[in-house]
Amino acid sequence: MIFLRGILIGFAIAAPVGPIGVLCIRRTLSGGKLMGFLSGMGAASADMLYGALAAYGLTVVTNLLVENKAWLQLFGGCFLLYLGVKTFLEKPADHAAQANQVGLVGAYLSTFFLTLANPMTIISFAAIFAGTMFVGNTSSPLALVAGVFAGSSAWWLTLSFGVGLMRGRLAVNHMAWINRISGAIIAAFGIIAIFRK
């Protein structure tokens, strides 16, 4: 039961399409399903880490993250802005790029750190866990955290494979517009993160 609740929490936190979702969609279209999925798994791993912090009631670490919210937002916002501009200006490839090991690891790590740099994630987890009386009050925090990871992973698997099915149907000019739109959205999220109080 606790594991199933964790799945629902993980899925609910991952599903809203924010900058990470847009980034995973873009990477799936340019680099394939595996690239998109590993990008999502970076976010799922960060969700699991934040879920563990909330589930085990590590208030010292949680408070430290919340206290440094402004710096984390600034770092994450600047990186999103850079990523958005880079994506906007990027020319689509004529053929699918082969995702090498460095590219796959980089895809995973970049979304992992971007998700960690968003203090709203830990606040969301803390609020959900507190609202359901999970913080420091569950007999099986490990099952809860495993559920969060499974739920978040299920979302990223669904998203990357769903988008991957459309990949072969898109022409180069479609990809150019996807780059521009994705880049603009990611950059906008970056600007919002930098100036959000």
Explained architecture:
By secondary structure, the chain is an all-alpha fold. The termini are far apart. The chain has one domain (2-78, 94-171). Residues 94-99 have low confidence and may be disordered. The protein has helices at 2-14, 19-31, 33-55, 59-67, 69-89, 101-116, 119-131, 141-167, 172-195.
Keywords:
single chain; mainly alpha; 9 helices; 0% strand
Write a compact overview of the structure shown.
The chain is mainly α.
Give a topology summary.
Elements: H1 2-14, H2 19-31, H3 33-55, H4 59-67, H5 69-89, H6 101-116, H7 119-131, H8 141-167, H9 172-195
Helix pairs in contact: 1-8, 2-3, 2-8, 2-9, 3-6, 3-7, 3-8, 5-6, 5-9
Order of helices and strands: HHHHHHHHH
Estimated helix fraction: over 70%
How many E-type strands?
A: 0
List the domain count as a whole number.
1
Structural class: mainly alpha
Main beta-sheet strand count, sense and barrel state:
none
* Regions with little confidence, pLDDT below 50 for 5+ residues: 94-99
Radius of gyration over alpha carbons?
17 Å
> What is the overall number of helices?
9
User: How would you describe the shape?
Assistant: globular
Q: How much strand?
A: under 5%
Distance between the termini: 38 Å
Mean pLDDT: 76
